[in-house]
Amino acid sequence: MLRVAVKKKLADFTLDIQFSVANNILVLLGPSGAGKTTILRAIAGLLRPDEGTIAHGERILFSSSAKMFVPPQLRRVSYMFQEFALFPHMDVRTNIWYGVKKYHKDANELYERLLALLHIEHLAARYIDNLSGGEKQRVALARALMAEPEILLLDEPLSALDSDTRLELQEELKRIQGLWQIPFVLVTHDRAEAKALGDEFLFMEKGRQAEHQPLWQDALLQC
Ligand SMILES: Nc1ncnc2c1ncn2[C@@H]1O[C@H](COP(=O)(O)OP(=O)(O)OP(=O)(O)O)[C@@H](O)[C@H]1O
């Protein structure tokens, strides 16, 4: 279970949010500038909240009262965003192995399994520059999972893709989450995508949970 309860003063308002997510997919929704990406950055350790706690199970990642801040590289959190952040001049295999923090004997097996799961075996030797958007997205997902994260953060991961590829990858993400059984926190502006992927939803407004969450959720599920 990932638990987040943080405050952070931002340019126009204070982010003040509490939520938890078990081993399923939480979707963060809300208008532009509501604070969704800031939450992901805080979970990843790329931004330090002013106060509060972020914990995964018994493991504290951030606690202002205990003066604890685990740096991003020690958090076991993978963060995928739209630009993929793959190395264009390297092949797929090298990009995916880049996700491994420490080599261990099962890493080869994991690598093979990820290629098969994401249907990218035939791309292993190809350069990133020569891949389609959907293929890049699969490689980025393989790299994120190669790090064996305990939490996966996804910020508009599919927004650059055409609608067919998007639907296909939504199914892939859902299936992989079912297999991996770790918390996924997903930001999207696409309501159909939120509905297709989300197990739980958090609607935000100006850094806070929006009022009337159940009404928002009913409206989403009926659309
Ligand atoms: N480190 C920071 N310090 C101060 N203000 C910040 C910081 N990072 C972001 N902000 C501001 O906080 C607000 C929330 O930004 P954030 O990127 O989290 O919104 P968002 O909901 O993800 O928006 P979008 O949907 O457009 O990506 C914005 O007004 C932004 O300018």
TrEMBL record:
Signal peptide start and end residues? none
Entry's Gene Ontology molecular function annotations? ATP binding; ATP hydrolysis activity
Instruction: Identify the SMART domains for this entry.
Output: AAA
Q: Which residues form the ABC transporter domain?
A: 1-223
A Pfam family of the record is ABC_tran
Q: What is this protein called?
A: Sulfate/thiosulfate import ATP-binding protein CysA
Ordered alphabetically, the record's keywords are: ATP-binding, Nucleotide-binding, Transport
What's the source species for this entry?
Answer: Sporomusa termitida
Entries under InterPro entries matching the protein: AAA+_ATPase, ABC_SmlMolc_Importer, ABC_transporter-like_ATP-bd, ABC_transporter-like_CS, P-loop_NTPase
